[in-house]
Design brief:
This protein is α+β, with helices and mostly antiparallel strands and about 400 residues long. Helix content is about 25%, strand content about 30%. The structure holds acetyl coenzyme *A (ACO). The site of acetyl coenzyme *A has 23 residues, from β3, α3 and β4. Homohexamer; trimer of dimers.
């Protein structure tokens, strides 16, 4: 197999790199979207492959942090824009680019790498495991809530998208302290990805921002179904791309607001956590449907001691974990001593209590998968009976991790 040498793209190669992404993702960006992509890319974090003067493979990374159980954060390389031309697939280009991205992340001192996988079969081999999950739900308009909002829950006001970033950013930060898995945002990300009022096409409203003292919803109203000249739209959907609510009052107020918008037939809530408390608010369970549920953030652990020290642990546990990995920095036996006062991971020659793969350890890092679940699925092998049961209450989080941003 050819030995590829991924390298950062030069500024004048950026368009050629994004062209490769367009081909690989079967898309055509408008000139405005291309310009936004160009301005967002962190050029020094790109790793491309050039063959005979032409870019044939692309990858990039966002410099981010991700929230952890217990309210802390850690730097994370957000791997993105992974694309290989269809003429060059299965010749090791992704493998070479991934190695280059991971090396760069390590050089930058990032203990974690994360990504959204286009296909679930690709990234396990590189040590990534699904660490958070997401769901999309639909609620009928006017669905009664168990506890309807009252004036005491506080008012909601609509704010212009152009003014929203400084108002929403502190609430988003509070959400990060509340749940693991939420990725940090730059000002450009807020402006170009979250608050960009670019119509998706068809019949739709402008993007609206509903603001509460303890939360917000970003939504538009979209007519779906047959919209031909003589036809009425069959559905008018309030699509909430993002809803952050930090108190019971904010949850009642924002859900009550969205489900009572006139002329709409239903509300769709996108990118919700799988234990969404908003679902508990709907009085009749049949008024809420889960439309879609999938993996969200895939995580790879680059620095285990840093992760174990930074995340919160709900209970004491001490055990030796043997990690199966092709990554020498992770493979081998580690003694974990964790508890509410902190955690430490140190190399040990001691006998293993539990054996598991790097990707499966990554899937429990944020609390999205339980150690007991891994054991039950045969993904963890217990060498000391009861060791997994001891780790389980320590690693669990009271609330499911949540990743709002698709990148
Ligand atoms: C984080 C993100 O950006 S996610 C987006 C990923 N990009 C896409 O989905 C766009 C369309 N697809 C592509 O561009 C390419 O097919 C990629 C990037 C998925 C794979 O690139 P390639 O250069 O073909 O991968 P590479 O040759 O390095 O494969 C490495 C291994 O992964 C396997 N693999 C690669 N892609 C896939 C896949 N889609 N499904 C299953 N296995 C795969 C290969 O078979 C190979 O296995 P082996 O080591 O046992 O031989």
């Amino acid at each position: 197999m050819t030995s590829w040498s991924p390298r950062p793209a030069a500024a004048d190669e950026l368009d050629a790199m994004l062209d490769v992404c367009d081909v690989a993702f079967h898309r055509a960006q408008t000139p405005a979207a291309r310009e936004r992509s160009r301005s967002r890319v962190e050029l020094d974090r790109t790793r491309i492959v050039v063959e005979d003067g032409a870019v044939v493979a692309s990858s990039g990374a966002w410099t981010r942090t991700v929230s952890l159980p217990g309210g802390g954060t850690l730097p994370m390389a957000g791997i993105t824009l992974v694309s290989v031309l269809p003429t060059h697939r299965r010749r090791g280009l992704l493998s070479a680019m991934m190695a280059a991205q991971i090396e760069d992340a390590r050089d930058r001192g990032e203990p974690l790498a994360g990504l959204w996988a286009s296909e679930g079969t690709i990234y396990g081999r590189f040590g990534f495991g699904p660490a958070t999950a997401t769901r999309r739900t639909a609620i009928a308009r006017g669905a009664p809530l168990r506890t309807p909002p009252t004036a005491a829950d506080g008012p909601i006001r609509l704010v212009a998208t152009a003014d929203a970033h400084p108002l929403l950013a502190p609430l988003h930060e509070r959400a990060r302290a509340d749940r693991a898995g939420i990725v940090s945002r730059t000002a450009a990300w807020w402006r170009q990805r979250i608050l960009l009022d670019e119509p998706p096409g068809g019949e739709h409203s402008a993007l609206h921002v509903a603001l509460h003292a303890d939360g917000y919803a970003i939504y538009r109203v979209v007519a779906a179904g047959d919209t031909g000249p003589a036809a009425e739209p069959t559905e008018v959907v309030v699509q909430a791309a993002e809803l952050v609510a930090l108190t019971p009052g904010a949850r009642r107020a924002l859900l009550g607001f969205l489900t009572s918008i006139d002329l709409a037939t239903r509300v769709e809530l996108h990118e919700r956590p799988v234990d969404d408390e908003l679902a508990l608010l709907v009085a009749a369970p049949q008024d809420l449907r889960v439309l879609h549920e999938s993996d969200a953030l895939w995580l790879r652990i680059l620095d285990l001691p840093a992760l174990v020290a930074a995340r919160g642990w709900a209970a004491d546990a001490a055990l030796v974990v043997e990690i199966r990995s092709e990554d020498a920095a992770l493979a081998g036996r580690w003694r974990l001593e964790v508890g509410p006062d902190g955690g430490a991971a140190t190399r040990t020659a001691g006998a293993a209590d539990v054996v598991l793969r790097d990707r499966d350890l990554a899937s429990i890092a944020l609390g999205g998968t339980s150690p007991i679940g891994l054991l039950a699925a045969g993904l963890a092998e217990e060498r000391r009976v009861g060791a997994t049961a001891a780790l389980d209450p320590a690693a669990r989080t009271p609330r499911a991790p949540w990743t709002i941003d698709v990148f």
